[in-house]
Write a structure and sequence with these properties.
This protein is an alpha/beta fold. Helices cover about 55% and strands about 15% of the residues. α5 links the parallel β5 and β6.
Length: about 270
């Protein structure tokens, strides 16, 4: 039986731990968590997650240790759990901006380390995760386990660390772009006379269905768009407005701006 423990069970840490417990509880895995806010453990306990009183105690009993604390707390937390670290442990950080080199430094190369970047749809069990598996101390079974664990929570993609900023600009920040588009459509729905709650429900279903269709069909996205546009119809009238405004170009510019800012923050 392997044990996965999470230090920091806030929104993202709790979502990851709870999702893993739902999917893998009793299937060769046990789960435990430690957080400074004990009430956050209550919903996780219902999923079979064991609450542990301290970070060191968690690291002693867990085979896989997920660090889900704020980036500025990483060094102190790892320092606290150093006595429990060894080659039989696997340390995974989801803290933004904490490099693999920094993880190796603070853990003093006592155990293999992995850097993981999630996005917020992980809170709904549909996350996209980038994982950096470049630590030379990682064994093949470590790599396979990381991909298997995060793979049950959504799409898990191994990426070289040099691509993490680009991933953050496109996928990490991506939900904000999508929510902005959704909010605009909800606002249009209200303008057309739909109650706000009903407009939101319709727009959420629209994005969910459109994403599912794009995932299932092999056609280019432009072809899927054209399939909705009848000659002289209302859809092409709306599309013409979006094209004149340069929606696609604006989205590209937004992602590139986020990437540029991310690189500035790394310097």
């Amino acid at each position: 039986m392997r044990t996965v423990g999470c230090i920091g069970c806030g929104n993202m840490g709790g979502a990851i731990l709870g999702g893993l417990a739902d999917a893998l509880g009793g299937k060769g895995y046990a789960f435990c968590g430690h957080t400074r806010t004990p009430e956050r453990m209550a919903p996780l306990a219902e999923k079979g997650v064991t609450a542990v009183s301290g970070a060191l105690s968690l690291a002693q009993c867990a085979d896989v240790i997920v660090l889900a604390v704020k980036p500025h707390h990483i060094a102190a937390v790892v320092e606290e759990i150093l006595p429990a670290l060894g080659r039989d442990k696997l340390l995974i950080s989801i803290a933004a901006g904490i490099s693999l080199k920094r993880l190796r430094e603070v853990s003093r190369n006592l155990c293999p380390v992995v850097r993981c970047m999630p996005n917020t749809p992980a809170l709904a069990g549909k996350g996209v995760f980038a994982v950096c598996l470049e630590d030379e101390a990682l064994r093949r079974e470590n790599r396979d386990e990381v991909l298997a664990l995060f793979g049950v929570l959504g799409l898990c993609l191994p990426l070289p660390e040099e691509r993490f900023t680009a991933f953050s600009a496109l996928i990490g920040a991506g939900p904000a772009y999508v929510f902005a588009m959704m909010q605009g459509m909800v606002q249009a729905g209200v303008t057309l006379g739909f109650p706000c709650r009903e407009a939101r429900r319709l727009v959420v279903a629209l994005f969910d269905g459109s994403a599912a269709l794009a995932g299932e069909r092999p056609e280019h996205l432009a072809q899927l768009r054209e399939a909705v546009c009848s000659p002289g119809g209302l859809t092409i009238a709306g599309i013409n407005v979006l094209d004149r405004a340069g929606l696609a170009g604006l989205l590209v510019e937004a992602v590139l701006a986020a990437d540029a800012r991310g690189r500035e923050m790394e310097e």
